[in-house]
User: What shape does this take?
Amino acid sequence: MKKLLSLLATITLTVTPVTSVIACTNKTSDGDNNATNSILKSPIFNLTADDLVKSAKAETLFGGHDNAVHDFMNYFAFQVSKQLSDTKSDLYQQFNAAVEADNTYINDEFINSVQTQYNSSRQYAISQWNEAVDAAKDDGKKWEETFRKALEKQLNRTFTKYQDAKDVYITNQMMKGTNNTSVIDSLLNAIYAIPQDNKVLTFDQIIQNFSGQILGLNQTIGGISFNLLNAWGANWVKDSGLDLVGELTKLLQGLAIEVGNLSHPYFDSLSTYLIDFINATGGTNSPSSNTTAQLSNITWMTQSAFKSSVLGDPATWAKEIIARACSTYTTDYDSSGTPTSNYKPKIDGKGAGVAKFAAINSYVSLTDNSSISNNASTKGLFSNAQRYFANQYFNTKKPLAISEFIIKPLTSTNTLSTNINNAGYIADNVANQADVGSLYNFMNLFVNQGNWGGTSSTDNTKTMVSGSSDYSWDQLMNSGGSLSNWTNQAGKNYTWTDTFTSDFSLNQHTKLLTMDSISSDYSDILKYSVYDYLAKSSATEYTSNTSAPTVENDGSVTTNLSDQQKAITNWITSMNRRTSGTNNVYQVLNNTQGIISFVDTDGIHITRIEGYDLLKDANGLTSQTKLSTTSFVDGNQALINNYQAIESISRNLNNNSNSSVVKNAIKNQTYDYTNADTTSYYQYNNLNTSFGNKYLQFLANSSVLASIGITNTKEKYDLNGEVQSYLASAIPSSSATSTNMWISAWTYFKEILGLDDSELFDLIFPTSNATYDLFGIGAYATQTTIYTKYRQYILDVLNNVGNDISNSVEDAFENGWNTWAKSNNNVPIDNPENDYKPLKTLPVGYSDIENATYWDYQVASQKERS
Assistant: This one.
């Protein structure tokens, strides 16, 4: 008995005890059912009267909101997993209908993954039951009775015989989870999973597989004998009559005879190596036409294409394959394809026209779609389900990518009272005139020339820097923001004073700006200026002014100013929030690139909204598409490129010979958001094409740079990480962070099935004895009343969660504005009397941004979210 109890205790501790939920078919007294394996949390032993149940507070019966929802999500996950594993269940039928309707938010592997996890968990629980039974048998002749009593104590139920406890015991173990993973976390893993094929091969590995598994064959298929092994290498005998093209032709002919369907064992075992080789050397393109390594130039050989084209024309493809495989092909064969006297093939995969593609040194096999990764982020590639959550984050928090240059004060300390006006930057001395001149010239890099003392209307931000293929803003960021380093590079003809250079810095934000960003991440003036700028239907660009400046009582200017000093003085004065005017908080420098300027405690900020042209693109919304690994066998070119590219980036960065080249290609591609970089190893803009908003796609693609560790570039944020943080911040409260993330599974199923909270609850937990038993209330005479009250309690909490998420963003935006406005009334004037004069505060409100369409995630006619 002691051994049995020890085993039962061990079983309980080997899993994560999220909640203890069991089903019971035995009716017992009410008191015997009040335990942790029930939705009832209160030690109430008299629940036979409906009026008592109805009058009791829900919190008393079921616990507080956090704990109740925490437990409920485990019930939910268990039921979902169980029902999706039963093809006859209503849930399976409805979910499968969504799959067949090609719902863009469902991962191909989802149902199979859930079923695999459920069956594995069930088998584990059964093994625990069998182990417990075996241990019980050691207790002598009356072991069955002893075991039954031990189970009653363990499960808090009454059983006629120990066998009656089996299903209850198994369910209880499954509800706790397996391998230290709760049942709800297992469901989330299946939802989030990103396709992650195990067959990621280097070019050399592909050649080795081809050489060993194909060219090493000596057998008969379809009645046709061939000996590739003796047609080359050490086994080759001159004048034997064997050559690679001839023997490979026979192999393909034999496969064509034998293969009746794609699942034929010969096809599975041999076609994989042939398909991998063909794709790694240019796909269906001939070697002579495959002159670049860019993925978009490759038409992939898929399983179905292999069967129809390669096996449909064995002689042509045998010649094509060997021509790619042998760098000696032109000396091994004459123009008619006959072996020459110099025939001695070298298998290296470097035949005509394929060497450059080999430089990619990475290839994802298109023949295996079974394995997945439960990683939250696989180098920036979003799964279909992750795209759903990214859309919710995008629409709710309205994120923006921000980079900025900061010009520190040239003549004063870092206090807002002195830096808010020209006094911190303008002084009557020759050296300072040069410093101001540097600032004036620096401004020319980012504004329309016609607005900054020039006669042209050219947008300098989108003008290539002399001697470079980069734009000034991006190239400075790429140089780590060091103005001196950037200036000293070849082809730069700019000169700056040492003071200006040393006081120049940048801020490469590691987080996205959102409506609820806190001041430690983004200053109030930056946040409200940027969103105010976007809320306006139109904004006028600032034009430089060399007239004699007029300065009010909190700033002073000497009379001896150069035209450049006058221009800088007037510009700073236009951002002095104590002077008269309609908008003295920020100025718009460039409407094409979304660049504004303002003055803050640490100096002048020149701030750009990254990807602004995509944010404002009138054609930036499209229909979402589905990322599908099974589309590999159907030859979906764009999706294959999407998947291959992201893996190629990751693998190449681990290859010393390719790393620097790939990094530069990635950087260059991100700088021009609309055009393809023909020198890149991949089409950057083809990544994450399943998104329906080009700006959201840009954020996802840009975060690739952070996820693969590229340095000295302005993209430092992790979109996937921010989405995860958004889900984890969902209410009911900050004290139940795991519950917050789990609720996302509930909202996901509502989306997929098109149901509201009550409809989904009734689908998963119908009014039935099975549901009552699952909830641990099957023995109560008041089971229906308890169920009804519990249902309403959970639905009320879940409904509040959705409202609280959006409301919390609005509250954070408006409360932050109120705090900022209040602080603006208490900024001293820098004078001996320490006078105070309020700063101007922008009137931007939440509704101004909420109604903007920049953060819609699909074309309006097909929006999933109203």
Q: What stands out?
A: The chain has a mean pLDDT of 76. The first strand starts at residue 194 and ends at 195. The chain has 34 helices and eleven strands.
